[in-house]
Amino acid sequence: MTELTKLTLAAARDGLKAKNFTAVELANAHIAAMEKARGLNAFVTETPELALERAKLSDAKIAKGAGGAMEGLPIGMKDLFCTEGVPSTACSKILEGFVPPYESTVSANLKKAGAVVLGKTALDEFAMGSSNMTSAFGPVINPWKRKSDPAAQLVPGGSSGGSAAAVAARLVLAATGTDTGGSIRQPAAFCGLVGIKPTYGRCSRWGIIAFASSLDQAGPMTRTVRDAAIMLGSMVGYDPKDSTSAQVAVPDFEAALSGDIRGLKVGIPREYRPDGLSDEISKLWEDGIAMLKAAGATPVDISLPHTKYALPTYYIVAPAECSSNLARYDGVRYGLRVEGKTLDEMYAKTRAAGFGKEVRRRILIGTYVLSAGYYDAYYIKAQKVRRLIADDFAKAFQSVDVILTPTAPSPAFGIGETDDNPVTMWLNDVFTIPTSLAGLPGLSLPTGLSSDGLPLGLQLIGRPFDEETVLKVADVMEKAAGFSAAPSGLEG
Amino acid sequence: MSLDKATVKNIANLARLEVRDDELEHLVGELSNILQFVEQLAEVNTDGVAPMTSVAHMELPRRADEVTDGNYPDKVLANAPECHDGFFLVPKVVE
After folding, report:
1. For an interface test with A, which of B18, B33, B39 has the most A Cβ atoms less than 10 Å from its Cβ?
2. 20 to 30 A Cα–Cα from A284, which one of A149, A185, A324, B53?
3. pLDDT band for position A2 (50/70/90)?
């Protein structure tokens, strides 16, 4: 049954409908793969019994010719989504023992559509990181290996690294991610996957453990563009429980994949070619532009002049919101508690013991930039620059339909190969953060391999709520690139 | 801007994060480094630019002020490290 794990989400859906196999068989094949690949550390909590129960229900529905768009399809759920009755950790010690009595809107939408959740996938603690190395439960291993050094363990990227590793290793057909500054797109690029962060407001944030509320968005991580379109359709939708949920119609994303991008104008921002950009990434980008030209689209040179300020803006706005959101972890209502003689001492000891290094660092920076005397100089200033960054995109989209850039400045790096400077790690997200600050849809697509055999991704950015154009262009590029590589041992 | 140990201690206190004295030196360096990085924003001219608080181009929705949820104290307390008789328990705060 191992071939069942190599199907795309779309092929598995069609195979179930044609009764070539059952949802229980599909679930069992993936459960076996998940158990065999525990060395990757992709899952925090496995829920095989729940999955089989759900798969049986799916089989009953399919037998009657009923069922939703994700009926019987095994997926992974990032452990940032609260799931009723199943521990939800955010990969932090501070949520030790926390079992949500409610279900997040996005995970509920997916279950309603019939998805079979195999378990909760690992992430950087509270989604703060780009490598999965800040998880309280140890790093996740990328199933991809360097040709020159197959023994080296590489990071899957982050923060949705467990989801990325699980999809790349064929343990699930797809998985959920969340993206605050690149947490879907960068791990998708590192693991040879498609990942889309939809427009801010497209997916409800209700029940997603909050990091930076003005930026957080959920999205799918899959092996093909079509799979991303299918799964995205089952995640989105207006939700009155999230005050920033958008009341917009949900299109048929899969129907947008028309294959025709003739006449489309594709912006190529000159600021995304910084000094020191590797030749490999430059060439990948040039190849991408050539594919679009060949398909009848027109590349247009554009400028997004405030690009270089996106990273410093993000590292004021996101920690500020994080320090405020994470104030709720106080040892009183849920999670870890370390006793103290006074209430204040209990708070301080609990939070010191429960939060890891990166989270503590961001809480401190956030607290500082929001504190009296510094609020205007840092926080308000960053919010003003954020508007300039968003205006750059708005201006560009007056003359282009979509924008093409690299997703990340490098392929996956090795565990322990980075230096201690947090700012160096943050540079991973230099191409994804501007999109997040502007709230725009962004998709990463694998289009080539590095000289060392590791996947590389290109990013497509669209107008607000125009995921359809992004997906349509990605679908054309996917066919042109013919990216069919898989981690060693998992090919075809 | 470079921070000093007293400032970092004060921020940690505001954030209710216990920081040991032997961690202070390292944190001072790390946080100062981050602040120096973000301070490049000072070179951007933002005169007359309104701060952007949200990318969602919408008014916050309003609803009637009615109770629409609740009445399940057991669920609310289910994850509490300590509770008693329908209340969360905390260390004594009033002498």
Report:
1. B18
2. A149
3. low
Residue B59: is its pLDDT beyond 90?
no
Looking at beta carbons, which residues of chain B come within 8 Å of A464?
57
Residue A36 has pLDDT above 80, yes or no: yes
A118, containing H or E segment? strand A116-121
Q: Is the dihedral of CA A18, A19, A20, A21 positive or negative?
A: positive
Report chain A residues whose CB lies below 8 A from the CB of B4.
Answer: none
**Which phi and psi angles does A288 have, rounded to 5°?**
-60, -45
Residue in B38, B52, B88 closest to A378 by CB = B38
| Cβ within 8 Å, pair B91-A340 | yes
∠ CA A200-A205-A207, nearest 5°, is 170
| Residue pair A135/A122 in contact by the 8 Å Cβ criterion | yes
- Strands A402-406 and A265-269 turn out to be parallel
Structure-token pair, residue A130: 């780009």
Read off the pLDDT of each residue in B36-56 and give the average, rounded to a whole number. Answer: 94
Which ipTM did the prediction report?
A: 0.95
Compute how many other C-beta atoms are within 10 angstroms of the C-beta atom of residue A272.
20
Strands (E), A212-320: 217-222, 265-269, 298-302
The tokens describing A341, both together, are 């003689």
Taking only the tens place, the pLDDT of each residue in A287-334 is 999 999 999 999 999 999 999 999 999 999 999 999 999 999 999 999
pLDDT, mean of residues B8-14: 97
- Phi and psi angles of residue B12, each rounded to the nearest 5 degrees, phi first: -60, -35
Q: Which residue has the higher pLDDT, A427 or A197?
A: A197
Q: Which residues of A are catalytic?
A: 78, 159, 183
State the pLDDT at residue B92.
Answer: 86
With beta carbons less than 8 A apart as the criterion, state whether A180 and A211 touch: yes
Residues A362 and A366: their CA atoms lie apart, in Å, by: 6
CB atoms within 10 A of CB A402: 24
Write the CB contacts of A130 (distance below 8 Å, at least 6 apart in sequence): A124, A157, A158, A159, A182, A183, A186, A425, A426, A428, A429
Give the C-alpha distances (Å, rounded to integers) separating A350 from A95, A365, B88: 11, 19, 16
Please give the Cα distance from A364 to B37 (Å, whole number): 15
Gap from B31 CA to chain A (nearest CA, Å)? 7
Average pLDDT, chain A: 96
pLDDT in tens, A130-149: 999 999 999 999 999 999 99
- Going by pLDDT thresholds of 50, 70 and 90, the confidence category of residue A1 is very low
- The alpha helices in B1-95, defined as continuous H runs, are 5-14, 21-38, 73-77
Mean pLDDT of B8-16: 97
